[in-house]
Design a protein that fits this description.
Order of helices and strands: HEHEHEHEHEHEHEEHHHEEEH
Number of strands: 11
Structural class: alpha/beta
Oligomer: single chain
Strand content: 15-25%
Bound molecules: nicotinamide-adenine-dinucleotide, (2S)-2-hydroxybutanedioic acid
Distance between the termini: 39 Å
C-alpha cells in the first residue's frame, strides 16, 4: 500500500478497538466491488448509516484511495480497505452483512445475461471467500445477471455445507424504487407515498410490477398499465442507453442498495415488520428462486410472502416471467454443478 494507506489503516484499527470497548450497537458490513461505479457511492452511504460500526471495503483495484477518502467522513463507522484476492479472507472475517456489487456492467445492446461469462466466476470466487470467513453472514447480491448469480451463490454455499436460504438475497430493490417513481409520476403524487410490489426476477420480462396491488390503492387504464410495466421492465436499459457506453445505473442503484441493506440491518437488530421485495429461495411458484415481498428479521428472510391476487394482465406476465426465469436459474445452477 502507499504509506498514507498504512496510516489510515492503523488509526482506523485503534478506533475500532476503542469502539469495541465502548460496545455501541452496530453491525460489521463488507462491500465487495467497493471501488466501482456502484461500490463508491454505496460505500459512502453505508459510512453514513448509524447501524454500521465497521465497514470493510474490498476490491481488486483502487481501494486504498476510496478507503482514505471515505475514512475522513466524521460518522461513526470505522472504515478499512482491502485490496486484491489475497486480502479477501481478511476483508470478510467477522462480517454480519456482505454486499456484492462486483462485476462488469452492461453496454448498449447487451442483455444482463451477456454479463454471465465474466460475472459468474467473480461471484463464485467471492462466495467461496464468504464460506471461509463469514458463513453466517447475510449476503445482498447485486452483480448481474441476478437471476443466475443468486443460484450460483446458493450452489457454492450448498457445496460447502453452509447454505442457509434465509441469508441469501438477490437485490431487486432498484426495480421497486423505479416503479415507485414512475407510478408516482402517473398518479401525480409524492413517490415516498407509493409502494409498488415488484416480483419475479431482475431482467426484462422477469421484472413484474403488480400495479393492482399499488399502495395507495389506485386504478390504471390499460394504456397506463402497459406504459408503466414496460418502463419499469426497461428501466435498466433506459440508463444504459443514456450513459451510452459509460456503464449502467450506479447512483440510483447505490441508493436502492442502501435502502435494502438498511432494511436487512433493521431486521437483524430485531425491528418488527421490516418488509421488502427480494429475489430469494422460494416456494411461492414452482421455481426454486423468485422475488416477492419478504419479512426481514434476525435470521434474514424469515418469511416469504405469497403473490396475492393478480389480475389477468399480471397472470399473463407471470407466465412469461417464469419461463425466462427457469432458464436463467438453471444456467446458474449448472455453472457450479457441471
Ligand atoms: P463497475 O465496473 O463500475 O464496478 C465493478 C467493480 O467490481 C470494479 O471496481 C471492479 O474492480 C470490481 N471487481 C471486478 N472483479 C472483482 C473481483 N473479483 N472481486 C472484487 N471486485 C471486483 O460496475 P458497476 O456499475 O458498479 O456494476 C457492478 C455490477 O452491478 C454489474 O454486474 C451490474 O450489472 C450490476 N448492477 C446490478 C443492479 C441490480 O439492480 N441488481 C443494478 C445496477 C448494476
Ligand atoms: C439495472 O437494472 O439498472 C441493472 O440491472 C443494470 C443493468 O444492466 O440494467
Amino acid at each position: 500500500h502507499p504509506p498514507n494507506f498504512q496510516v489510515e489503516e492503523s488509526s482506523s484499527l485503534r478506533r475500532a478497538n476503542c469502539r469495541a470497548k465502548g460496545a455501541g450497537p452496530g453491525f460489521k458490513v463488507a462491500i465487495l466491488g467497493a471501488a466501482g461505479g456502484i461500490g463508491q457511492p454505496l460505500s459512502m452511504l453505508m459510512k453514513m448509516n448509524p447501524l454500521v460500526s465497521v465497514l470493510h471495503l474490498y476490491d481488486v483495484v483502487n481501494t486504498p484511495g476510496v478507503t482514505a477518502d471515505i475514512g475522513h467522513m466524521d460518522t461513526g463507522a470505522v472504515v478499512r480497505g482491502f485490496l486484491g484476492q489475497q486480502q479477501l479472507e481478511e476483508a470478510l472475517t467477522g462480517m454480519d452483512l456482505v454486499i456484492i456489487p462486483a462485476g462488469v456492467p452492461r453496454k448498449p445492446g447487451m442483455t444482463r445475461d451477456d454479463l454471465f461469462k465474466i460475472n459468474a466466476g467473480i461471484v463464485r470466487t467471492l462466495c467461496e471467500g464468504i464460506v471461509k470467513s463469514c458463513p453466517r453472514a447475510i449476503v445482498n447480491l447485486i452483480s448481474n445477471p441476478v437471476n443466475s448469480t443468486v443460484p450460483i451463490a446458493a450452489e457454492v454455499f450448498k457445496k460447502a455445507g453452509t447454505y442457509d436460504p434465509r441469508h441469501l438475497l438477490g437485490v431487486t430493490m432498484l426495480d421497486v424504487v423505479r416503479a415507485n417513481t414512475f407510478v408516482a409520476e402517473v398518479l401525480g403524487i409524492d413517490p415516498r407515498q407509493v409502494d409498488v410490489p415488484v416480483v419475479g426476477g431482475h431482467a426484462g420480462v422477469t421484472i413484474l410490477p403488480l400495479l393492482s396491488q399499488v399502495k395507495p390503492p389506485s386504478t390504471f387504464t390499460p394504456e397506463e398499465t402497459e406504459y408503466l410495466t414496460t418502463r419499469i421492465q426497461n428501466g435498466g436499459t433506459e440508463v444504459v442507453e443514456a450513459k451510452a457506453g459509460a456503464g449502467s445505473a450506479t447512483l440510483s442503484m447505490a441508493y436502492a442498495a442502501v435502502k435494502f441493506a438498511d432494511a436487512c440491518l433493521r431486521g437483524l437488530s430485531g425491528d418488527d415488520g421490516v418488509i421488502e421485495c427480494a429475489f430469494v429461495s422460494s416456494q411461492v411458484t414452482e421455481l426454486p428462486f423468485f422475488a416477492t415481498k419478504v419479512r426481514l428479521g434476525r435470521n434474514g428472510a424469515e418469511e416469504v410472502f405469497p403473490l396475492g391476487p393478480l389480475n389477468e394482465y399480471e397472470r399473463a406476465g407471470l407466465e412469461k416471467a417464469k419461463k425466462e426465469l427457469a432458464g436463467s436459474i438453471q444456467k446458474g445452477v449448472s455453472f457450479i454443478r457441471n
